[in-house]
Amino acid sequence: MLTLHKAAAALPKPSRSRMCEFLRSFGFDPGKLFLHKLILGIETSCDDTAAAVVDESGKVWGEAIHSQTEVHLNFFISSRTGGIVPPVAQQLHRENIQRIVKEALSTSKISPSELSAIATTVKPGLALSLGVGLSFSLRLVDQLKIPFIPIHHMEAHALTIRLLNKVEFPFLVLLISGGHCLLALVRGVSDFLLLGKSLDIAPGDMLDKVARRLSLIKHPECSTMSGGKAIEHLAKQGNKLHFDIKPPMQRAKNCDFSFTGLQHVTDRIITQKEKEEGIQKGQILSSAAHIAAAVQHTTACHIAKRTHRAILFCKQRDLLPQSNAVLVASGGVASNFYIRKALEIVTNATQCTLLCPPPRLCTDNGIMIAWNGIERLRAGVGVLYNTEGIRYEPKCPLGVDISEEVGEAAIKVPRLKMEI
């Protein structure tokens, strides 16, 4: 018997697709038997239409995404409004969602009947965009008679790292994007303590506005890039110390952020340089790379200092282990490698480990939504068998806010050399 067991173990294991075909040939539904649970994740919170199929082992079976970046850039050129245009985003989601979901399922070689549940972003985000994803998902859930898992967009970003690494709770997460800037302690799948947030705009929004003010869309190297990507690209050619731009909120001993002041200071510098160079607004400054480098450096220093204080606070309160604590940086702005380097300086100084999802998983995607569905399915949290009354929420806080408690602790942060 032992010999037979060893021989069987040596045989190649059938692929999942072959196993599924075998079960179907006998009239069985693979998704509802002993195979891994399969979740379809759908993301439409802003300007990307995305879908993915992920199983409970973390394997991505198929994904698809439609980016609206170029459309909104072209809309900016014609209308001068800048940013995401909600009605345009809504229409593009409507035009693409069915195709994207079909593509994700087709790539995964999974039929809809094999899905265990559907997970969809319902909060926070642009109301018009969220509505498209939710309506489509509810129709599909009703048709397939499977559970629905509503997803908090920022929680999904926070937990993406657990798809790739064995990260145990608790850990600290920094979520930085075009719409959000949050520092939170993650204690469980749906257990978050908010340590700090932006008091005005998000860093990605600020970088986009600076890029528009610099007219980087007219720069030959940046014409197809988003604002943040254009700043990062151009900053490599500039001197970060050419302009003296101070980080905001230096006297506030909390973990909150502010980026509006930085935007205004930069705008004044650009206006002054336009006068000095004798060019009109909308033309490319010769010092554009220096401005991009200075803004990026100041942004990185500001984010790093608030994160440093959050780590010290959590360790003082025994909310994180004293050694080998984990800091996760995620969200679109976390794909900026300069900002990552600044965070590495902080984690090295505090005996922590910095983990970042790859850039493609830092920006909005269907994989993180499907994975968050898996996490919730495992934990038995937020899995709905009755979707009556489910609504999208454009504004929704993350976890329990203890930012005032952090401020009251008034922790002084040691100065670190940001030599990047």
UniProtKB/TrEMBL annotation:
Belongs to the KAE1 / TsaD family. The gene is OSGEPL1. CDD domains: ASKHA_NBD_OSGEPL1_QRI7_euk (cd24134). GO terms for cellular component: mitochondrion. Keywords: Acyltransferase, Metal-binding, Mitochondrion, Transferase, Transit peptide, tRNA processing. Its cofactor is a divalent metal cation. This is N(6)-L-threonylcarbamoyladenine synthase. It comes from Canis lupus familiaris (Dog). Its EC number is 2.3.1.234. Residues 78-371 form the Gcp-like domain. It catalyses: L-threonylcarbamoyladenylate + adenosine(37) in tRNA = N(6)-L-threonylcarbamoyladenosine(37) in tRNA + AMP + H(+). InterPro entries: ATPase_NBD, Gcp-like_dom, KAE1/TsaD, TsaD. Binds 1 divalent metal cation per subunit. Signal peptide: none annotated. It is found in: Mitochondrion. GO terms for molecular function: metal ion binding; tRNA N(6)-L-threonylcarbamoyladenine synthase activity.
